[in-house]
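Entry:
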Amino acid sequence: MMDLISCYSQYAVQVSESASCSTYTPASSCIVSPNLIPSTQTAVSCFYKTTLSTGDHHFITVTWHRNATTQGLQITSGDDSTPPFRLNTHSGLFRKKKGSKSVEINDSKFEIYYDLSSSQYGAGAEPVEGYYVLIMVDSELGLLIGDLTEESTVKKLKSHKQIGKFALISRKEHFSGNTLYSTKARFADTGSWHDILIRCAGETEGLKYPVLQVCIDKRVVIRVKRLQWNFRGNQTIFLDGLLVDLMWDVHDWFFNPDPGSGSGSGSGHAVFMFRTRSGLDSRLWLEENMVKSDDDQKKGFSFLVCATKS
């Protein structure tokens, strides 16, 4: 898949409310048939930056994954060569739903505490309530996620240890199935949660050419006509007082080669990315090596939807 920096850094970005290009025609409301079932969320990866009282930084990735038979949790820190922490899975249930483990990562001691014994799941891979995952880094509270913050173990650790600062840098969700994707996202710590719906409509809906539609809170913010010719692009929207760049790349939906036929199979992967801007930042694409630099506070939050069309 082509790097969007090289594709679009030379072009100006249009704000959706004042877009003049006929390819992008926002509408007032989003209408989707209730008979359509959204694709299945198979994995969620959250990328955090932890800052200890010593000034040391650590980057922690928490990944939840789920399919028809198994589900699991993986935690990594540092580069790809660092061995990850994994919870054993079997028959869709965690073998050990509550416990702790200590590991050494990049000369730092990581203590991982978790309780998933009462966790509740919706349709996705990530639990929605009834759980916590707590990570101590060199005896400081480095990361805490979940809603069981009053559980005795959490209270004890919080009261006896130094507390580092952690922030969510990016979130990535993987989907598999058709071309309808439904999720929620929050683009600022103090912002509201927003319903996001991404849909590609085509011949089955009586359209001559495929159309991409992105809705936020049941309002169409972007509509891309003749998608097979506009398979990569970017648009800018305003949300919660923030300037948010929305980029899409659906090239492989139309031009993914089928080994059997030698032609486009209509399947493949697509990427949709929402990224908030900060200050005078004018970059469109946030690469991983840029995220991990020392001036992260100057960069915006990234939310990616990685869609597999089967």
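The chain is about 5% helix and 45% strand.
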